[in-house]
Fold:
Amino acid sequence: MAPSIRETERKYAAPAAEDISWLPDLTGVDPVASIARRKVQELDAVYYDTDDLRLTRTGASLRCRTGGTDDGWHLKLPLPGDNREEIRGPLPSHDVPEELRELVLSRTRGAGLRPVMRIRTTRSLRHLRNIEGNVLAKLSMDMVDASSLLEDGGHATWTAMEIELADAGGPVLLDAIEKALRKNGVDRAQSPSKVVRALAGTTPLLEQTPEAVSAVTAGSAADHVLAYVNRLVDALVDLDPAVRRDLPDAVHRMRTTARRLRGCLRSYRSVLDRDVTDPIRRDLRWLASELGTERDHEVLRERLTSGVRELPGELVLGPVTARLQTWDAAQLAEGRRRTLDALAEPRYLDLLERLSALTDQPPLRPKAAGKPEKVLTKALLKEYGRLAQRMDRALDIPTGAERDAAIHHARKAAKRLRYAAEAARPALGKPARRLGKRVKAVQQASGAQHDGVVARDALRRLALSAHAAGEPGFTWGVLHGQEGAAAEARERQLPEAWARTRAAAQRKAFRR
Structure:
């Protein structure tokens, strides 16, 4: 896996790089004690993107740069706030490394990459140090010369300044430095990166807005639903590289995002045409299912491992830990294979293309222009009705396999209602927030009950494998019993959680 670093930096509009008399004395900013000038660097970077700038539009950049101390390929991915992740590749040639090409696939959607911009920078670097001599931050004064490599592209020059945190610095330091800069008339740069500023100044492509999006009425039902949909689509795209790199919790978050998006498209079919959204929902269901193999195993592994770890030593008979590790390795490999295979499927790229078209050209229905209080409330009440029907039936069934299946069926409806409430929260406020909180409790109680069912099934299979190998089955039986007791306890909590949800849905404020 290519190495990566986390960058925290802020960019400012600098008057000039040669004469820095306007720059305040930053040694007055605690804990900066000294400023050391470094050797001037000559940097030459070629940025790659698709013809329609799909990387730049999603806040990412891919460049091949020489000069400085980090020659090579740099893929920068956006993170919240002032942070970015930079993934680096070597410089054996000017062909985009295959690993980096895969990591931008959710953004390019298979479109070809080509050079779009050349940026040459003369960088004057200064290290801001504390009294012990440790580097707190790096201040770069850059004279930038940008030349577009697109057809009919232009040329631009400007001066820029960047403040990047070093290992010994912290976010509070950035705020203190910014305060000192603003007192001297230095403001943040309007563009988030050099390549964005360069492209904005040399091509009109970044300023083009799809007509369908601009036609959405501000404050309408469609405006609220699409804001939620757009946020989820962006999250799905951003999570793709993390899933490919097997970063912690990435599969879980991507699967949950796919489920949220699928539920939203179902709940608000009065706003978005289902002829367009139903095929997208089917593909989202497929994606969530493929990711589920790896994610479900992660949950189950942690549950069983913790169960064994918490047992008193005298209750652990036989090679229990070794058998659990063997089972884990086999299941983990299968889950990982299915995840990566899914992300390599043409169906996945087609799904990303459909999602991009959905956000650029939303298929609006007549009610899309309606008042959100009316349209969204009606959609929520429909989802509540489906949940009520399933939950009431489940709670009437005697304990057993049929009841387990019915509770799991109701749990799916609870998820859809919760996600629909999330989308409606900015428009409906407290009633939607209260309903979402109540239904989350129902989802958690029914989910814990279902997790117990899955765990007991896995323990039974592990016990059978142990028995076939001549190993004691006692420990597996103890764990099976514990899971059964925990599931029963959760199941007893379900009626009360459901009663609270029913009360929240029946409030006059919600049904206004």
Q: What stands out?
A: The chain has a mean pLDDT of 92. DSSP finds 15 helices and nine strands in the chain. The CA atoms of residues 144 and 502 lie 61 Å apart. Strands lie at 4-13, 34-37, 41-49, 61-66, 72-78, 83-89, 114-129, 135-148, 155-165.
